[in-house]
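Notebook entry, cofactor series.
This is the third protein in the set we're modelling with a bound small molecule. For this one the ligand is pyridoxal-5'-phosphate. I'm keeping the input format identical across the series so the outputs can be compared line by line later. Sequence and SMILES below, as received.
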Amino acid sequence: MLYFYVEKRIIGDSRRYLINTYNRAPIVLIKGRGARVWNSEGKEFLDFVGGIAVNCLGHCHPRVVVAIQKQAQRLLHVSNLYYIEPQVRLARLLVENSFADRAFFCNSGAEAVEAAIKLARKYANDHYGPERYEIITAYNSFHGRTMGALSATGQERFKKGFEPLLQGFRHVPFNDIDALREAITAKTCAVMLEPIQGEAGVRVPSDDYLRDVRQLCDEKGILLILDEVQTGMGRTGRLFAYEHFGIEPDIICLAKGLGGGVAIGAILAREKVAESFQHGSHASTFGGNPLACAAAVATIETLIEDGFILDNCNRMSEYLMEGLRRIKREFPSIVADIRGKGLLIGMEITKNGGPIVERCAERGVLINCTGGNVLRFTPPLTITEREIDRLIEVLENVFERV
Ligand SMILES: *Cc1c(COP(=O)(O)O)cnc(C)c1O
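Returned structure with ligand:
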């Protein structure tokens, strides 16, 4: 009874004191472990949202927790006026395990996109002059909510009411190489794409699309930026999603899973591109701070050294897909499509997803719905068969009643 009132008060106070930017489920989560979270009444939920692809190692992974505890006792913050040990360790790990030569750290996905936009423009300005500043992105893309990232985003619903936006962006249909070829002009400095469009409903391009994009960019001397904020850090079964497509980009944006639950963003770039940022070109007070970097070092070391995790991601991807396909066969009038890679999986349905998300939560399983009718599953990469069985059971139960 007491807990009920605590929960009620937190929800009431949230509605009273917070700016109303989120449509929240009436759930107050206070504890998490692995793929499980608990509310203030002690009710357990299986978490197939995972902070929307943030909690890649599950909640409170012991290695991440210990790294944070140790770092918090030693040093929380110093300015980038000085060298920072966890920051350079993280940069080295990212560089040695990717296409890139250098890293810059910030605090979120949108900030990583801002840094990529600035670096691409600066590079084009340095090498081709000030007329070359345009960045081509895809319709239905999502790159974040700050003004630059919002201008890059290819969805009107996020932009409405915030005009005028930043100049110098053009949008083309995703997965359409001819449209991209036609959109490129002498002004184009970069193409920026999500390897898999997450927010748009888990849209996977055809196998050769990104390879063709890479080739086109090379022909025209244009940079290829991949926004891997959602797809990076093992989410698709490889450390970075570009590895699936047999290409290397010039810049990638990272955030979400990078800190294993702690806020941190980054861009990684090739040497020739990174050179265009010099002392004073770009900065962030908190970017690369010791605490966030210690968490990210523990996260990426765990992902790389514990071969089990990426392996598990791929096996559980197959297992979850199989379960979802079974549901599709059982409910052909509800399920339209199932797609994804690794543990970034979408199930397109013919109904409004909102009530289904609610009913799953009532039955103790948290899922997300994006674009109105795509159920999105982004659980921890450590999820188990039994936990997936439970999701499938609950989904079947809910679908039987809609
Ligand atoms: C979530 C997301 C962002 C924005 O990240 P924030 O940390 O919310 O600013 C940018 N790009 C992609 C692909 C994302 O999924």
